[in-house]
Amino acid sequence: MTAPIAVKICGLRDRAGIDAAARAGARYVGFVFFPKSPRHLTLEAAAPLAGEVPVGVAKVALTVNADDAFLDALTARVPLDMLQLHGAESPERVAEVKARYGLPVMKAVGVGEASDLAALDLYTGVADQLLVDAKPPRGVDLPGGNGLAFDWRLLAGVTWKSPWMLAGGLTPDNAREAVARTGTRQLDVSSGVESAPGVKDADLIDRFVAAALTAD
Ligand SMILES: O=C(O)c1ccccc1NCC(=O)[C@H](O)[C@H](O)COP(=O)(O)O
């Protein structure tokens, strides 16, 4: 049986965004803990926000090469359902984080060309989910959330045993095409549902989720 399509809205920073994502039918909401990001949240800001997320919507914390001290503080203060590792974490580090915190882990891998896909195999069976994202262009400071898509034709005929999500440059206008072309059952979006960097737009969230959920 084909899995139903699930949407993750990443980089939420306020109650209005969470409400919009939940109302639209998103399955996951993402909080970014990366100071260089326009979507960065402090632990103090994230804790009450995460507490507002309705039951049934998974709360995902995105970190980049975070150490145990930060992850200890994060998991102690913010109620979470999943950790998203978006840096250069090795498969061993992913396994360590999973064991230490007892939370499912999603590992992001940047894809720009066919040779990048091999890295995903290293995390299959180690991470609970894979996030297949666009590789940031050279010189760009953000490892994700750049609003850029990779060439989805690279995924033709590719499958992984672990559940995976597609990310990178998704918008309300290309969500259906992304599902059709890649066969993904999970879509992760950030810039494509923003009116400005870090500012989520309820109408774009609505349109994105509606497009994704009717993509079949
Ligand atoms: O969103 C960020 O600012 C960010 C910062 C550091 C690492 C990852 C980041 N975002 C990753 C995501 O999960 C995004 O949803 C994903 O890369 C897609 O982003 P976009 O192309 O903007 O939709």
From TrEMBL:
One Pfam family matching this protein: PRAI
Top-rank lineage group of the source organism: Bacteria
Record SUPFAM superfamilies: Ribulose-phoshate binding barrel
InterPro entries, per database record: Aldolase_TIM (IPR013785), PRAI_dom (IPR001240), RibuloseP-bd_barrel (IPR011060), TrpF_fam (IPR044643)
Domain (N-(5'phosphoribosyl) anthranilate isomerase (PRAI)): residue spans on this chain: 7-210
GO-annotated molecular function: phosphoribosylanthranilate isomerase activity
Pathway info: Amino-acid biosynthesis; L-tryptophan biosynthesis; L-tryptophan from chorismate: step 3/5
GO BP of this protein: L-tryptophan biosynthetic process
Keywords: Amino-acid biosynthesis, Aromatic amino acid biosynthesis, Isomerase, Tryptophan biosynthesis
Reaction catalysis annotation: N-(5-phospho-beta-D-ribosyl)anthranilate = 1-(2-carboxyphenylamino)-1-deoxy-D-ribulose 5-phosphate
Known EC number: 5.3.1.24
NCBIfam families (alphabetical): PRK01222.1-1
Record-linked HAMAP family: PRAI
Record-stated family: Belongs to the TrpF family.
Protein name: N-(5'-phosphoribosyl)anthranilate isomerase
Organism per entry: Sulfitobacter albidus
